[in-house]
Amino acid sequence: xxxxxxxxxxxxxxxxxxxxxxxxxxxxxxxxxxxxxxxxxxxxxxxxxxxxxxxxxxxxxxxxxxxxxxxxxxxxxxxxxxxxxxxxxxxxxxxxxxxxxxxxxxxxxxxxxxxxxxxxxxxxxxxxxxxxxxxxxxxxxxxxxxxxxxxxxxxxxxxxxxxxxxxxxxxxxxxxxxxxxxxxxxxxxxxxxxxxxxxxxxxxxxxxxxxxxxxxxxxxxxxxxxxxxxxxxx
Length: 234
Hints:
Layout: E1 2-4, H1 14-20, E2 27-29, E3 42-44, H2 58-73, E4 77-80, H3 82-90, E5 95-97, E6 103-108, E7 110-111, H4 113-116, E8 129-134, E9 136-138, E10 145-149, E11 157-160, E12 163-166, H5 174-183, H6 185-190, H7 195-208, H8 210-233
Parallel strand pairs: 1-2, 1-3, 3-4, 4-12
Antiparallel strand pairs: 5-9, 6-8, 7-10, 10-11, 11-12
C-alpha cells in the first residue's frame, strides 16, 4: 500500500520496481483505513506538510499511529522524504526544521560505514547524485542504523528492523523533478535557485545517476519481497 500526500508526488520509479517483484499496489491519498496495519508493505511518500503538523493535518496523526503499530509488530515500511520523517518520528526521533535551510536540487550522498555493509546501499557508486527537496530533518533514529548523509544534512537514510527511511528522492526522474520546480517557483526562490540553473546543472546530473537510482529502487523492492514472503510463511 502506498500513502501519498500531494497530487504531483507519486511513487515514480518505485511503483514498477515493486510490481516487478509481485506486489499488487493500492494507493491512498491523505487517508488511512482500518486494516491498513496488516498490509504486506506500507510505503509513505513525500509532501509539503511537516511530520509535526498533525494539528493542521490530522491524517498525519493516523499515519504516525499506523507506522508505530507496524514497527511494534515487525511489519516492513518504507518512508521517502516526509515518509522518512514520519517513520523516524514513529520510532521516537525528534523532527524539526533544519538550521541549514532548504535542501533543493541534485546533490550527492555519502554512504556511511554501516551503509557500505548494507545490501541495499552497498552497491551505490560513491557520492551518487539524487534529487533532494526538504528542510525538515530528524535526530538519530532510536534503534536505527544511519546509512547515508549529505553535505547539508547528516540524516539521509536509515534502516530500522526491516524498514527503511530515505530523506532524498530515488524515485524521481529528471522529468518529474522539472515538473516539481515548475509547480513551486516560490520554493525555488526560497532556496536561492532559478529554474534555468536547475535545468542546466541539476537535471543532467540526475540523468547521469538514473541507472544507480533505479538499482537502489530494485534492491529495495527485492528486499521487501523477501521480507513479506518470510512473514507469509509464518
